[in-house]
Amino acid sequence: MPEKSASNLVAEPQSPPKIRSPKRPAGTLYRGNEGMWSWVLHRITGVSIYFFLLVHILDTALVRVSPDAYNIVIDSYKTPLMGLAEIGLVAAIGFHAINGLRIILIDFWAFGAKHQRTLFWVVIGIWLVLLAGFIPRQLMHVFGG
Amino acid sequence: MSLIEAPRTPTRGRRTGGINWEKWGWIYMRASGVVLVVLIFGHLLVNMFLGEGVKAIDFAFVGGKLSDPFWQVWDGLMLWLALIHGANGMRTIVNDYATNPKVRTVLLAGIAVSTIILIALGTLVITTFDPCPAGADPALLASFCEAL
Ligand code: HEM
């Protein structure tokens, strides 16, 4: 084994090397931690609401076909499962919208860029308040008598 | 003579003059975003939160809203701003991940074509919509149709 013979010639270091690469990236605006995850979430929510919007324009266009055509499709949305899916939709749009405002603050305001990490948690806070207001109301509409 | 190309050498060469479309796209994402916050949260508030929420949505509900110029403008703005914002965002994502030029061209063309068709369709619906179509069951229509 070449390695073994090599190590016989070179003194084996007793202590681990002084400089170690960090266990995880220290984090910049776009790599690691809040900066990166906010971007990942922004991208996933953006794509999701885009595809929803395509369907939503088509289903709403049925009002131009006939009252029956529109009502049949909209009634098929009035199920408990769709009621829950709508919570997911509002959660996605809510995050994308509030984090979009965070992106704008970072782009145009030095304070925003400096405190982007704190602003991410502010976004999560506002988002939770939004959902705390919406979810009970939606459950009432979907499951209430 | 340099043997190694400079990193990030643009494949298309440097832009010389003309309109900086990427810059205006960047600005559009932010400007439309701010307006969309108001339009979309207002839309969700009226359609999903107030009154009976999603349960109340049917032809008569939409008929009532789309016969009001205020909501026609609201929904029209939302249609144009959101669809172009979303399509431009999808363009960015396709450019990021679709490395095969043919696949990329097909995807970008798909986004462009679907955007044009849906904007035309949505605008047509908003501007030519009749909340009280002749011959429809009056029970399905907004209450103001009875007066006609
Ligand atoms: C509610 C208000 C909204 C705000 C404040 C907002 C804000 C933003 C901002 C600031 C960006 C970043 C652009 C960039 O990095 O250059 C963005 C990207 C994007 N948005 Fe929105 N947006 C909103 C609504 C929407 C809607 C309704 C859709 C779907 C139709 C959408 C789809 C996207 C997509 C697909 C991207 C690209 C994401 C990426 O490149 O990672 N957004 N948005």
TrEMBL record, chain A:
The keyword Heme belongs to this UniProt entry's keyword annotation: yes
MF annotations from Gene Ontology: electron transfer activity; metal ion binding
Annotated Pfam families: Sdh_cyt (PF01127)
GO biological process: tricarboxylic acid cycle
Membrane-traversing stretches: 40-58, 87-111, 118-135
Region annotated Disordered, chain positions: 1-26
GO cellular component: membrane
Protein's name according to its UniProt entry: Succinate dehydrogenase subunit C
InterPro entries associated with the record: SdhC_prok (IPR039023), SQR/QFR_C/D (IPR034804), Succ_DH_cytb556 (IPR014314), SuccDH_FuR_B_TM-su (IPR000701)
Organism listed in the record: Salinibacterium amurskyense
Subcellular location(s) of the protein: Membrane
UniProtKB/TrEMBL annotation, chain B:
Segments crossing the lipid bilayer: 27-50, 70-94, 106-129
ATP-binding as UniProt keyword: no
The entry's keywords: Electron transport, Heme, Iron, Membrane, Metal-binding, Transmembrane, Transmembrane helix, Transport, Tricarboxylic acid cycle
Subcellular location, record wording: Membrane
Keyword Transcription (UniProt): no
Pathway it works in: Carbohydrate metabolism; tricarboxylic acid cycle
A GO CC annotation given for this chain: membrane
Cofactor: heme
Single annotated GO MF: heme binding
GO aspect biological process, one term: tricarboxylic acid cycle
Pfam family, one: Sdh_cyt
Membrane topology, record value: Multi-pass membrane protein
Role played: Membrane-anchoring subunit of succinate dehydrogenase (SDH).
Identification of the protein by name: Succinate dehydrogenase hydrophobic membrane anchor subunit
Originating organism: Salinibacterium amurskyense
